[in-house]
Design goal:
- This protein is α/β, with parallel strands linked by helices.
- The protein has 2 domains: 2-58, no CATH class; 91-311, Rossmann fold.
- Helix content is 39%, strand content 20%.
- It has 14 helices and 13 strands.
- The chain has helices at residues 2-13, 27-41, 46-58, 61-64, 82-89, 95-104, 120-129, 142-154, 206-209, 227-232, 235-239, 250-254, 260-269, 304-311; strands at residues 67-69, 75-77, 110-114, 134-139, 161-164, 166-167, 172-177, 198-204, 218-221, 243-248, 273-278, 281-284, 296-301.
- The chain has an 8-stranded mixed β-sheet with strand order 5-4-3-9-10-13-11-12.
- The longest helix has 15 residues, at 27-41.
């Protein structure tokens, strides 16, 4: 029944005649509807996309108990979050990130996941490093953190330590967005007002959070443009980190008054060499000015020899 309803909605969204033309709707509502229709049209599976929204917003996820099984050997339930819905639509979503974790990590490694969301990458890491390793998942949003903790508990004996905190250059209270598209929540820059839901969160430096951690084999950072403050607060941690995997976007960095080249240059001063992660390999950055023109994943590597030993792939450049 739910799928039939979703299909009917999808047909209308994709161009069937409706009684009231959307251009007759009030301005803001028209813009919102047009945006949503465009989003549906761009989906690979519009029916499943709409079904996911119906399950999410109707509360049906509580009754249906949908289980999402991942090839990495763990599972999570359908939860009322944007990322959970996306994985239900496409289990291959962000598979490049999971592939990187599987190709780089080894048994006994120490992994820190900053911006862990509901924990898919943290659980992927836990499955590789095993009980001899350690995974620390850090997530600031209270609601999303509750799903992260539940997913970790659900997948015992995989071990992940969960910490609710934002991460930045100092210990302070930050304002963050609280969007329905909760995989895009971000720190709100100082002095900027915002229409919509806002949460205040405690932010801490990685140097303080990880003070007792002797080494970090992989530091993953996904903080929607707040990368430079995160790294600025992690100078001691970076000195004992072997590899960093992080998302970089020029548009996201611009919110906080810096550019991707600033991130690249800072990490280079900390002893790393920077590469793009593309098509399952580390690609040299020929022109730092092109970094982040589109949202992309970068890899910061401290020792080329250690990388080549782990992955079996030589680094060019």
């Amino acid at each position: 029944m739910l799928r039939r309803l979703a299909k009917r909605v999808a047909v209308e969204a994709l161009g069937a005649k409706v009684r009231t033309p959307i251009r007759q709707l009030p301005g803001k509502l028209f813009a919102h509807v047009r945006l949503r229709l465009r989003q549906v049209r761009n989906e690979r599976d519009p029916v499943r996309f709409i079904a996911s929204r119906l399950i999410w917003r109707s509360g049906a996820w509580r009754l249906l108990r949908i289980n999402l099984k991942f090839a990495e050997g763990f599972n999570i339930p359908f939860q009322p979050t944007s990322l959970s819905a996306r994985y239900w639509i496409d289990r291959g979503h962000m598979v490049e990130d999971r592939d990187f974790f599987r190709s780089y990590l080894r048994t006994g490694d120490v992994v820190v996941d900053v911006g862990a969301n509901i924990g898919v990458l943290s659980l992927t890491a836990a499955g590789v490093v095993g009980q001899r390793g350690r995974v620390i998942a850090i997530e600031p949003n209270e609601r999303i953190f509750s799903f992260l903790a539940a997913n970790v508990a659900r997948n015992s004996p995989l071990e992940v330590s969960c910490l609710k905190s934002a991460v930045g250059s100092s210990a302070e209270i930050l304002r963050m967005t609280d969007l329905r598209s909760d995989d895009f929540n971000a720190v709100i820059p100082d002095g900027q007002s915002l229409d919509g839901s806002v949460r205040t969160v405690q932010s801490n430096r990685l140097d303080d959070i990880l003070g007792a951690v002797e080494r970090v084999d992989l530091l993953k950072v996904d903080v929607e443009g707040f990368e430079l403050p995160v790294f600025n607060g992690a100078e001691k941690v970076l000195a004992r980190t072997e590899c960093i995997y992080f998302e970089c976007s020029r548009a996201h960095c611009r919110r906080y008054g810096y550019s991707p080249s600033d991130v690249v240059e800072y990490l280079e001063t900390q002893g790393f060499s920077l590469y793009r992660w593309s098509d399952h390999k580390a690609v040299p950055i020929a022109d730092v000015g092109t970094v982040g023109a589109v949202c992309e994943n970068l890899v910061a590597i401290r020792h080329a020899g250690a990388w080549e030993e782990r992955t079996g792939a030589a680094l060019a450049g």
